[in-house]
What does this fold into?
Amino acid sequence: MATELPTNEHPARDRHQLQTVIIAIALSCTVLLAVFITVFAATSLNHYGFLHFPLGFYLLAQGLLVFIVVVAFWFIRLQERIDLERSESEGLE
Amino acid sequence: MSLPSRLRTPNPHLGAYYGIVTSAFVSLIIILAMFEQLGWGRTLLAQSMMIVPLALYLVIAIGSRTTEVEDYFASGRRVPAVYNGFALAAIAVGGVGFLGYTGTVFFLGFDALAIGLGWTFGMLLAAILFVPYLRKAGSYTLPSFLGHRFRSRTLRMAASVMQLAPAALLVVAEIKIAALIASLFLPVAFSIAVLMLSALIAAIAILGGMRSLTWTASAEFIVGAVGLVVVVTTVSILLTNLPAPQLTYGEMFSSLQNAEITAGLTPVAPGGLATALPGTPPHPNVKPFLQSFGILAPMDFATLFLCLALGTAALPSLLMRSGVTSSIGEQRRSTAWGLLFVALFVMTAPAMAAFAKLIIFRDIALAPASSLPGWLIELGDKGLLQVHDANGDGAIGAAELFIGRDGIALALPSAAGLPYVLTVLMATAAMALALAAAAAHLFTLAASLAEDLYRVLDGRQTLPRLIAAWAAIAASALAAAVFLLIADLDPLKAALTAFAFAAATFFPALLLATWWRRCTKWGAFAAMTVGFTVMLGETVLGGVFGFANAGFTTSVASLAGILLALAVGVAVSLYLRKPSPAEDNYFDDMRDPEGETIYDRAQARAAAQAAAQAAAAEATPVQ
It folds into this structure.
């Protein structure tokens, strides 16, 4: 006898939640990883220069901050697109 | 009947109002600069520059006074994203950040960058992990959100009590910074300044709650930003010929290193977090600016960064502003704007510190001990610097120059030879941010006492809602002022401890509450209690037994508390009962980006039920 697979009552909601979790983990971990790599490589990076700054110092004082700001605005765009997809899908259901 | 928040439009004249505020402040600077050239005395200049903005904040608070509950606790949910970003940045940086962070970068150089980086990353974490869900929940306070999420009054009251530690520490730290500035530049004693400024922030919070805090904080942010930009850009032009301090201070590094070597600064070995952060009293600078990990080892740097990031992400005063905009998208954007403004400050502070260090060490290297530059003597009179030729060699070395950490930013304009009006401008900017942050922390503390403790404990609601909030604000401001009059505390260390408390107490509980459906009331309660207890233990035992000197530091304790709290929260949630259907529904509703806030819907339902009951009672014929 064939067993009946459980049906997903809220496919749009579940897809939205999965995408939201993936984005949150991916972005947070990417920034965290970038910070940790820079911190532990800073002494080596300081042998190189950028705009008259030692590179390790520059990245911790400015480079990573610019990166975090860009990630924040990029996150907003991504999340709004996902939210919109959910609204449209739920409108069709 | 109130409108859904998405349909409410912000005041279309806001841009014009704040354009006028900005123009008026810039005009004040120009007029006072002219009057200084015409011979006005310093006291009069300082009074005009500092008292006019204070009067402006009070006028804005009076203009935005309200007795509507939603306006009072959530600013009517119609604050535009940029203005909420102004307020968020002013609260996150505050006077402690403005003066304390700049001073710490001056003393620790490279190693202090962990603090600014932590704030910025914390704002990003808040935007991603918590803000959208708190906006959808729509609760007026953080404990109220936890209480509604888990349908638990016990949890709500416990969160309110645990919130006291970070909020109270931040209130007193910010009031102390503002009062120190006032006592340096105005003819008032520190104790009088504490009382007057506590009364001012209490008045702002009482008059319009979150609404007046939002609009005064926007003006305070503008004053802070204008002051910072004008002074640092002018110094940058003088030293590098370019008006972009963030990009050009790297050019000064070779001169700075030469000045440090001449003053006798040599590389130092890491000593751990315990003794790393400079205190308030003037003390000598021991570490070269560019030396990487000279006082903090890389692991200490990462620990401090992470503690501040998680503390910022879970800071109740920042998260309490999650319900003031018109939609979830707008709330996310406002956090990103706040993050951008904080990042701009964090990029500028090292430029200020590098400029100040270069000028100070260059000038003392050139001058013999018998004829020090005038600005050095002037700052000595204010207690910001102490110079003593201890070895009698006729020159001042780095070890003989004692500098107050919180005075570096204030000393920069004088050291650069700028007109006195710019020194007072810098002080006004720092005071503006300190007041914005102090008022926000005070309101967070008091609103929670009134909403989450008093209203829950007093079932009969003897005091009306707003009167309870006003009483809590007045009592909290008085308590903060009395504390500052009898106790001494280091504002930066108090603020860092507050961030560590916020991280350990609220980050794990919020993470579980917003991202894990299976989390239960007792799981969240256990997570909060464990994190708070670890921090309380570290603070109390560290003070009593000197653990801090043994390396058991606040940030390490905070991170350990977070890990322990997460583990306990998960274990308790899995061990005890499953979440109820109501908790499950709340979780789904909170994560649905569409629709009105959960709190407003519940309020509307309750109002409709009350109206229906009243109508039914009227329709029933009298027997």
In short: The first helix of chain B runs from residue 14 to 37. Chain B has a mean pLDDT of 88. The longest strand of chain B covers residues 385-387.
